[in-house]
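Chapter review: from sequence to fold.
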Amino acid sequence: MVFKKMLSAFGVGGPSVDTVLTNPNTRPGLTLDGQVNLVGGDAEAAIEQVVIGLVTRVEVEGHDTEYAGTMEFHRMAVSGSFVLAPKQQLSIPFQLAVPWETPITDVYGQRLHGMTMGLRTELAIARAVDKSDLDQVAVHPLPVHERILEAFQRLGFRFKHADLERGHIRGVQQTLPFYQEIEFFASPQYASTIREVELTFVTSQRGVEVILECDKRGGFLSAGHDAFGRYQVSHTDVDRVDWAQVVDGWLRETTSRYGSLRSQYGPSHGHGHSRGHGMGGMVAGAALGVAGGMVAGEMIEDAFEGDFGDFGGDE
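The token string follows.
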């Protein structure tokens, strides 16, 4: 009997937890629905609470080091305290709101290389080892994200990698403690001025702040450097513009106005890069009035011609 008590203190013969998602695919601003299924162990268990949380892998830059760690960035209790009888089966339904700033993990059914996302379920048991369960989640882009990613593809950029950087971008309203960087190799038409581009979306209910960091090539008498641009778009703009034209304008403007940015904006909090605030935030708005309605829904299929390899890459 003593041995059995000891085993149960280590979680052996204790309750089990298994979370089932109705659909593991979601988008920023939507929900994840499912149920937490509990099965009682050999003895009754005092459950303190059942909590679910979104977890992902985040890069952290120290003074001289860079490492990646798992971070929970959004959590919700799905139950308070209760007693689970031996062998009792219990299902607790939940609906978790997905934060607007949740990073994108999948584009057109392909996992972005470098991205991970999971829903962790924790079962807090009084006087015992906590139990947990982890389910993979796929966060798909909102329509405006899709159009901008599509525009980079149409302009010939090749997807390289995506990751999450801990910290905040100066001048940008963020609710999460990290931001996503989606990296592209420059296409031939930009290769003379740009090596790579890092794209960041900071999404809210109103729209998306788009931050570009261009790794510029050096010239005959100048060294290479990073140039920054920041632009605002609304969710309602999604079908009103030729996004390739808009993104091309952003890139040209960002790479043409280096000098003033570096002195005006220092490194962002908790991050080694300097992020430009830029004066071009309104350019998107101006461009949006120009060639409206040129992006049709069927372009989603046309733009990639069934080959999504550049977005692919399993870990």
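Two observations follow directly from the output. The mean pLDDT is 79. Helices lie at 2-9, 143-154, 243-256, 258-264, 283-288, 299-304.
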